[in-house]
Write a structure and sequence with these properties.
The protein is an all-alpha fold and 115 residues long. Helices cover 36% and strands 0% of the residues. The longest helix is centred in the middle third of the chain and has 10 residues, at 59-68. The radius of gyration is 20 Å and the shape is flat. The chain has helices spanning 2-6, 24-32, 34-40, 59-68, 84-93. It has five helices and no strands. The two termini are 39 Å apart. It holds the Pfam family Peptidase_S10. GO terms for molecular function: serine-type carboxypeptidase activity. Belongs to the peptidase S10 family.
């Protein structure tokens, strides 16, 4: 059952991106199930992420930009395709001088409008 195959991670909580790393096969099976296809109003068998690359190496562009502008590199923490650790490794690999190291950003809780 594709519904059960999605529940691969131990302690599955139905949270955003709550699946074991590498469980894309289960995600693909779940997304291909007739009930999910119908609920999402997509055509069965629709391919994902089909695009043409317009550039293969953007490192020279980043080098040019960093020398002319202040750069903020932001990466959210709920991206299942490019988690923040991947972004951090990529940015460190650019060998630029880090002026402000990674730090946690927190939004102030909105207690005024809480129910």
């Amino acid at each position: 059952d594709t519904e059960d195959s999605f529940k691969i991670s131990a302690g599955y909580t139905q949270a955003l991106n709550d699946y074991t790393c590498g469980a894309e096969t289960a995600m693909d099976a779940w997304l291909a199930s007739p009930s999910v296809v119908a609920a999402l109003h997509v055509t069965a068998g629709t391919p994902g992420m089909v695009y043409d690359k317009t550039a293969t190496d953007l490192l020279p562009l980043y080098s040019e930009l960093i020398n002319k502008h202040q750069i903020l590199i932001y990466s959210g923490d709920t991206d299942g395709c490019v988690p923040y650790v991947g972004t951090e490794a990529w940015t460190r690999g650019l060998n630029f001088t880090v002026t402000n190291d990674w730090h946690q950003w927190l939004a102030k809780p909105d207690t005024e409008h809480a129910l």
